[in-house]
Design a protein that fits this description.
Chain A is mainly alpha-helical and about 260 residues long. Chain A has two domains: about 35 residues; about 220 residues, Orthogonal Bundle (MetI-like fold). Chain A is about 80% helix and about 0% strand. Chain A contains eleven helices and no strands. Chain A is globular, with a radius of gyration of 23 Å. With about 270 residues, chain B is mostly helical. Chain B folds into two domains: about 35 residues; about 200 residues, MetI-like fold. Chain B is about 85% helix and about 0% strand. Chain B is built from twelve helices and two strands; from the N terminus they run αααββααααααααα. The radius of gyration of chain B is 23 Å and the shape is globular. Chain B starts with a helix and ends with a helix. Classes of the chains: A mainly alpha (about 260), B mainly alpha (about 270). The interface between A and B is large, with 54 and 51 residues.
């Protein structure tokens, strides 16, 4: 009992010390910052409550890009994994080429897609939205395809032989054995790609034509030297990150019930 | 030729075919763009044009050729990324050891390590620049932040993965704490540290380039955004795109290579 108490008390104490050091400006002295670039928590909170409508509007734009790209990329990655597991000889090579895409900086991809999608729509908001979603899609495809492929291949020993000995056809083997087997691997991929989707959404906003979204607002406000507002948007970004991750954990808990 | 060698060869051939396939797709795209767009080099140039620009001796800005600009600025960016990466690795290493040694530290810090993974750190790059007021420092700081948590969490996983029997063996041999760490815990955690480093290395480079784009001066990111604004040849942009992709992949390979150097027992396993 004593053990579980300290699991909660220890991090909360550390957090409180952190906030206290920030509010009492001890943190500023350590980092050599002033309250202008690093406003006190009370002031950031005040700005959030004042501008809540505008912040929510920008949060919505970022979340739409992140989730849109996440869904498109994950579905595409899953389909690629199905293809690769059906044609293993060519698929494995293809997957290893694709997985090297993961090491390409987002910054290199974002401007290319911006230019490619220029003719898509006359509305700058729509076309930069498309460009941003495509960037997020690319970052999410890789981790899903690699992990889902492992889910199709790493089956329980002899389970595929059992299916064959029962004269199951390929479709049945796929839907009754491989798909269920890949579920935990899907969540492994999502644990990587959910935070990655938000990061790439924010970075692609930097290069987008239309000025919208949490990431872009952080940058714009810093350019205008409105640091307190920028901090408000950073808080918004952190909130998005944590909420999306918690939602993922909840969904994982529901889907994986009885598996562990 | 043994069966294994043959398989390795076909694997390499498959990868080669894939790369050729990607090049073909790119070229088809470039040909379409060439006929439909007014300035195709901004959207999707032919690969040959990019290669040509690397070797062209025509100065594009400040009497430097496009390739000179890329390499000289890359050194600046990559040195900072590398410094941040090393500092981050060191912090992650120490933090993981501290968390393993003191239960209270683990309890206090671990939830925050989990939280950092959910936070879009790259989005905070501008504010780090505002606080440090120095582009070099902020490159290092951001790369270090991005490096330390994958290293810390993965290494902690590694330290925890040591079986109880091995501890028992060490204790029964009256090994000191120092020996348990150097002979048992650290060697076990090496593969885990490297899986953290493999995540962190491309991220540190991305971060460093991103920080560049926030301010003028020198660096790959600065050149990238200037080239996009047509302050200099657009091919500088394309060269940087391919260069950064190459460096990103190289950094990953470098970590795999270093991993093999540091874990000879793994190498022995692989050759079997």
């Amino acid at each position: 009992m004593k053990n579980s108490k300290s699991t909660i008390i220890a991090p909360v104490t550390l957090g409180l010390i952190g906030v206290f050091m920030w509010q009492s400006q001890m943190l500023h002295r350590i980092l050599g910052a002033d309250t202008f670039t690093m406003p006190l928590p009370a002031r950031i909170f005040g700005i959030i409550t004042e501008n809540i409508a505008k912040i929510l509007f920008n949060m919505q734009a970022t979340v739409m890009v992140a989730i849109g790209g996440l869904i498109l990329g994950s579905v595409l990655g899953y389909l690629l994994a199905i293809l690769a597991s059906n044609f293993p000889k060519w698929g494995v090579g293809g997957l290893s080429v694709i997985s090297s895409f993961n090491a390409i900086p987002i910054i290199a991809i974002a401007p290319i897609l911006n230019n490619l999608t220029k003719d898509f729509s006359s509305d700058p908001n729509t076309r930069s939205m498309l460009a941003k979603i495509l960037v997020v899609m690319i970052t999410c495809t890789v981790s899903m395809s690699v992990n889902a492929y492992r889910g199709f291949i790493e089956l329980k020993p002899f389970s595929e032989d059992l299916m064959r000995s029962l004269a199951a056809n390929r479709m049945t083997v796929f839907f009754k054995l491989k798909v269920p087997n890949s579920v935990p691997y899907i969540f492994t991929a999502l644990r990587v790609s959910v935070p990655a989707s938000i990061i790439s959404a924010m970075v692609s906003e930097y290069f987008a034509e239309y000025i919208i979204g949490v990431g872009r607002q952080i940058r714009e406000n810093i350019v205008l030297a409105q640091y307190a507002t920028a901090w408000a948007y950073i808080t918004a970004a952190i909130t998005i990150g944590i909420i999306m991750y918690v939602i993922l954990i909840i969904i994982e808990g529901i889907c994986m019930k009885g598996r562990r | 030729m043994t069966k294994l060698q043959k398989k390795k060869l076909t694997d390499k051939l498959v990868i080669l075919v894939w790369i050729i396939g990607l090049i073909v797709i790119w070229e088809i795209g470039a040909s379409i763009v060439e006929t439909t767009k007014r300035s195709p080099q901004n959207v999707l140039p032919h690969l040959s044009q990019i290669v040509e620009s690397v070797f062209s001796s025509k100065p594009v800005s400040n009497k430097q050729t496009a390739w000179q600009i890329v390499t000289s600025n890359a050194t600046i960016t990559l040195l900072r990324a590398g410094t941040g990466f090393l500092i981050g690795t060191l912090i992650g290493f120490i933090l993981a050891l501290a968390m393993n040694f003191f239960k209270l530290v683990e309890k206090a810090v671990f939830p925050y390590l989990m939280m950092i993974q959910m936070i879009p750190i790259l989005g905070m790059a501008p504010i780090v620049l505002a606080i440090t007021q120095d582009i070099d420092k902020s490159r290092i700081v951001i790369s270090a932040i991005l490096t330390f948590y994958p290293v810390a969490t993965n290494m902690l996983d590694g330290l925890k993965s040591v079986e109880k029997e091995k501890y028992d063996l060490m204790h029964s041999l009256a090994a000191s704490n120092w020996h348990i760490y150097t002979k048992l815990l650290l060697p076990t955690s090496i593969p885990y540290i490297f899986s953290g480093l493999k995540i962190a290395a491309p991220m540190a480079i991305t971060a460093s380039i991103l920080v560049d784009t926030l301010q003028g001066g020198a660096g790959l990111g600065t050149m990238l955004s200037q080239s996009l604004k047509h302050a200099m040849s657009i091919y500088v942009f394309w060269q940087i795109v391919f260069f950064s992709a190459f460096i990103g992949i190289l950094s990953y390979k470098l970590m795999s290579f270093a991993e093999k150097m540091f874990s000879p027992h793994e190498k022995a396993k692989g050759s079997r």
